[in-house]
């Protein structure tokens, strides 16, 4: 038997080796071409290695997360350029004849031209860049020694710019190849595999230079006083390492400083920084020189003579002049004044008589744009021509603010669908927006929504239970009014104008009909919103009132609900008539953009206190014990996210999220159901269904018909229940994700999520649910997976597939990864479809 195996193994091995040799990507190379296999950087100890690697003019083919060259080679096997060229020529000839036959019908000719362009463009793309498989991969990177030499020169220049004036740079390109090859195995020539190039850049840094002295040489005394007075804010300090990037930033700082002090004509070209390294080893004496204008001894300082605000720029009325209203020395011009000039004047940071100020100009443009009643806003300055000799000594500007009105009414209609519990669920949203309805730049929004979503209903059938699918109904409406100022009972000054203050008044109604219950929620909020910066926003909600009612409640569902709540009183309160008054505060910092393309941070802090005034009216609202219930609570939530940009489309991101909710007074033990924390779902721990993770190590089982005894399967094992929401009072969760490009608009991700929720009080109904500081870190659920993101610029469609790795609620072994498989175990793997990134 051994003899037979050996007899067939040798030919099989030889065949495999021949196949491997024949499939070498080096066969894609032309004569005398070489494949760039590897690039190495050596000797970098103090400089930024990542910045140096970004200077490479050539990089090897990407191997992570997919071998791009192998994919390209696979597609190359199906690529026939001659056939594509013939098809392209035939297509052009066909459409040329059809266009000729369609004349003189211009409409038909136009349609044919469009079709010809679409089809020929697709064929030309395949001819130029290969078929779809080839475009998913990468063509071989042909080694170019000229690009290597240019890279070495750029690295040397970069090192000098960072203060390594005595650094040296050299490079080597070798054909050493440690890969397996059939030619090498047989002892013959290995010409094919001797075509892989490894490039090594070797840096000798030597000691960097530091500033030993900082001097200034400014002929204009007024400019000199202003620059020297700002020295505490300078970016250059004695002892710092020489850095041309920081020097450039210092030039920009001085320019902005002077532009904020009236120097309208000042430019960076007037600023020169001269470095002298001849005094002592590894030291630099840096002199900042500011030149005067060629025609004058001093830089002119401009004041604003007049401010004009055109509120309907772009509107044309032939034979009609704009009407002018003067408000605090500002001239407002419009064919018809629809917006309060007093409000608009409060948004201006530019005033007649002030010196020109770049920051105030940018603030004015930002604040007008944020009103959401204009399509675009520009601020321009016109020099005032002197009429007398005395006027020539005064340098004046006229400021012109031009704002083009946005569409007064706007509507948005959205339709979509979900597929849950084997049922399709259509939904639709209608949003109407009215701008400036009351003449104060307000924005009035009305929203209507309706949707159906499938869900599993726990139904009883004789002595066995089964999951049935039913549709739930959700209807809602809301109306929002946003005012571009704080609505307060006292006179509103312009002190907070630079923070873009807004007042938002909202009223919303939501109706939910499920097989287990019918629930309504009427809510009203009053918010103050302002921004500390372009990235940092505050929201203070002094009034948040919610009235909840449950007209119908299934008793079997209620008994199930009681089994997973801390106490019966809490379950009863959740589906009783309840009044929830609260106030809250939110601080949100987000330096990212909509498509998350920046190296950025996100930090959100939310604090809410409810029912402070409960003792004043609880007895009045609940006289007979069946009226409206009121509770009190406090809720804290923090969410931190970090986005590390590794490449143009590659990111390493992570998230830490935590929260706590508890009754405010010891005499109260109930919390509104909507205020609990939940874990699981497409934006949480993705291997678990939404709101189904936890709490702690508590395991939920399917109950028998008596609603108390856990049910067992044919083998006598308890049947786990994966379809019950699990509320908690403490939340701790996090995610780590690597995002990378795959093909064109398709991006990929690999991720790991962890987290759980816990109860803060002992819970006899849910053993293992209580938080314990000595063991909570052992109760984190862990899930991992991969995902696809379809980036359509205006919309990001996301598909994540996650499997459980560690399940703290599992009986027996907690390592659920042993059951990994798409369909191997119930609830082991979850598919999440969503819009936007998970965080």
Automatic annotation (TrEMBL):
Key words of the record: Cell outer membrane, Membrane, Signal, Transmembrane
Compartments, as annotated in UniProt: Membrane
Transmembrane segments: none
A Pfam family the protein falls into: Omp85
Residue ranges occupied by any Bacterial surface antigen (D15) domain in the UniProt entry: 476-838
Keyword Mitochondrion: no
Record PANTHER family: SORTING AND ASSEMBLY MACHINERY SAMM50 PROTEIN FAMILY MEMBER, TRANSLOCATION AND ASSEMBLY MODULE SUBUNIT TAMA
Entry protein name: BamA/TamA family outer membrane protein
